[in-house]
Predict the structure.
Amino acid sequence: MTSPQRSDPHLPEPWMRGPIEGVSPLTAPILYTFQHAREDLAKYTEGLTTEQIWAAPHGFGSVGFHIRHISGSTDRLLTYMQGEQLNDAQLAFLKNEKNPGASRGELLEEMDEVFRRSAAIVRALDPASLTEPREIGRKKLPSTVIGLLVHTAEHIQRHIGQAISAAKLARV
């Protein structure tokens, strides 16, 4: 993404930093979401130990689970958006999203790698394809390219909020 990183606390959220050069305003929102996730999760998990990352305060999902789920679900949803079905590696990743052990740095790097791959896919999208039908999962539930992009963005934001809450509770 061409917008600046959030090193300045006065910097606005990614979506308020202006257009992304060479990217349709119809597909840019998902790229803003990726950047917002990077910044918020780096900020709110700063200083957490690996034990705190995987703690499940009050039975809620751990920070680690939410970050890993953001990575896995983004990869899976973009696979469907491309008109493909999940492969064995993606299904195995899904089964292991709750398994503790990875450090904060490893989880954030894993997420960033998924976002980099996903951003390349989004940048290559022809905006004319946004209304094309897509099928989700074994049941082949109906959606569209834009439906999957919108859901990916909202799903990421939902889990960012849960990860932030879990991070705050893990510090107590």
Q: What stands out?
A: The chain has one domain: 22-170. Helices lie at 28-45, 50-53, 63-81, 88-95, 104-123, 145-170.
